Amino acid sequence: MSRQRKRSIAFFVAVLTLVTAALALASSLPMRASAPEIAALQERASQTPSAETGAIHPGESCAPLEGDDTASGSAGSNANAGSNSNSSHAIPAKQNFSGLQNFAQITPTLFRGGRPTEEGLACLAKMGVSIVISSEGKYKDLRKPVERLGMQYVSMFWECSFPEDHTFAKFLQLLRDNPGKKVFVYCHYGDDRTGMMIAAYRMAEQGWSAEEAKEEMKDFGFDFFHRRICTGLSDYENHFPQHWREGHAFENLRSTAPTQPQP
User: What is the pLDDT of residues 248-261, one digit of tens each?
Assistant: First the structure.
């Protein structure tokens, strides 16, 4: 067989292979939709919330995930609650919702947790939360997705190693100024900064001791590791009752404090 004939056969085989591959690819692609089908798809898309907004379907409930022992949504006590000197000062159990880590209900209108996903934000909106408080920095700002869902976003950034009275005075004043509104406060993991903000509320408004509030912080992740990272936080928490009684930042709050501890 001549060299030129061999080249011709090789060329023919290559062309045949390319044609076969092209036909196989074409058969795997979906057929072009008809005009009615395109219209139906467009109508369906217009009725489906965008994943970017974190919205959920109108008929879809924000239900606890399987394995949650607080499905009723009420704050219960956990294993460590019995360590509290006051039996009414029960530590709430964590609740397991998709997109909400380290989440719990502190009062009927106050919730805590770690940084929520957009799915978690949609869940908060479904629960009726009106105000979302972030103690994270601007580089993790969730203002846009929060406001898209009709909630108010409030930034209260502070470094966990350097707690200052004015931060907690601002937090407590916001709660006082918005009675009846549901508020969610978070930091990255919902343990140290969030823990101290809730501890401040417990001591200032509910009459908890520093020891009781510290136990709740531990239950939500404030452990030896966090005490090493947030070097000044544990000591600040221990002395918060004195800050509350004597600190200038809390003067206005003290003068208008309710006569009875808040529920």
Answer: 999 999 998 765 56
3 state DSSP class of 90: coil
Q: In the predicted model, what is the mean pLDDT of residues 205-212? A: 97
Could you tell me the CA-to-CA distances from 114 to 31, 97, 163, 191, 213 in Å, in that order?
46, 12, 18, 7, 18
- Residue 106's contacts (CB-CB under 8 Å, 6 or more residues apart) are 75, 92, 112, 198, 201
pLDDT in tens, 21-68: 455 444 443 434 445 544 443 444 333 333 333 333 333 457 666 544
The confidence score (pLDDT) of residue 88 equals: 74
The residue type at 183:
V
Task: Tell me the pairing of strands 152-155 and 95-97.
Answer: unpaired
Report the CATH fold assignment for 85-255.
Protein-Tyrosine Phosphatase; Chain A (3.90.190)
Phi/psi for 76 (5° steps) reads: -115, -175
Q: Which residues pair with 112 in a beta bridge?
A: 104, 185
- Give domain limits for the chain: 85-255
Q: Which amino acid is at 83?
A: S
The answer to which of 79-83, 85-89, 180-184 has the lowest mean pLDDT is 79-83
Task: Between 94 and 262, name the one with better pLDDT.
Answer: 94
Helix (H), strand (E), coil (C) string for 130-187: EEEEECCCHHHCCHHHHHHCCCEEEECCCCCCCCCHHHHHHHHHHHHHCCCCEEEEEC
